Amino acid sequence: MKRVGLMGGTFDPIHIGHLLAAETAREQCGLDEVWFIPSRTPPLKSGAPSASGEDRLEMVRLAIAGHPAFKALDLELRRPGISYSIDTVHELSARCPGCSFAYIIGGDRVNDLPRWHRIDELAASVAFIGVSRPGHPVDIGSLPESLRGRVRIIPMPQLDISSSAIRALRREGRSVRYLVPDGVHDFIVRKGLYGS
Ligand code: ATP
Ligand code: MG
Questions:
Q1: According to its UniProt entry, what is the function of this protein (predicted)?
Q2: 10 CA distance to ligand 2 centroid (A)?
Q3: Ligand nearest to the CA of 14
Q4: Residue 140 and residue 43: Cα distance in Å, rounded?
Q5: Structure confidence at residue 159 (pLDDT)
Q6: How many CB atoms within 10 Å of residue 171?
Q7: Does 186 map to a domain?
Q8: Distance 192 CA to ligand 1 centre (A)
Q9: Is residue 187 part of a domain?
């Protein structure tokens, strides 16, 4: 069995919080690979992503270039409509019958797991690896019993970084260098993404 971590998100833009979560999960949970999956239309977010799907995917590719275990997948960007994880997992299981999958998610996403589309079905097919993030400590006790056993919480150095905060910095004309990998920084500046 190949053990694969799935890192889903809008990645608008990808930042070092995403990368550290993925690398920490890979190491602590013995994952063979981590697949980054930018979503087209995230189910539980208001408002469309700011950057195009193409640009968000390109930033993911730039960010993970050189990591032999990290891959970028475009299946959610290609699939029309809302990007439900359950559809992604069905597609990936068919593509790789020899793979076992675990979603890597931050504290905000752990706490809203009960609201995920067809969560019981999803939790039957994949496990979850949860990491706390500043402002979003994981509250495993508040999850329903059925989900609790499917979530493994791992420690990770806390990075108070979000894509929204990075977009806000750009709107104010401020630097986002080192919050994102150098290649992503240069791409954002060159394309004038997020408004400055
Ligand atoms: P936004 O502010 O636009 O929501 P974000 O920084 O939360 O952006 P997402 O693309 O929404 O990024 O998140 C993708 C996944 O990465 C989610 O599971 C989220 O919880 C996790 N994540 C994002 N930032 C961090 C961080 N700093 N530490 C740990 N996990 C994070
Ligand atoms: Mg988010």
A1: Catalyzes the reversible adenylation of nicotinate mononucleotide (NaMN) to nicotinic acid adenine dinucleotide (NaAD).
A2: 7
A3: 1
A4: 22
A5: 98
A6: 12
A7: no
A8: 22
A9: no
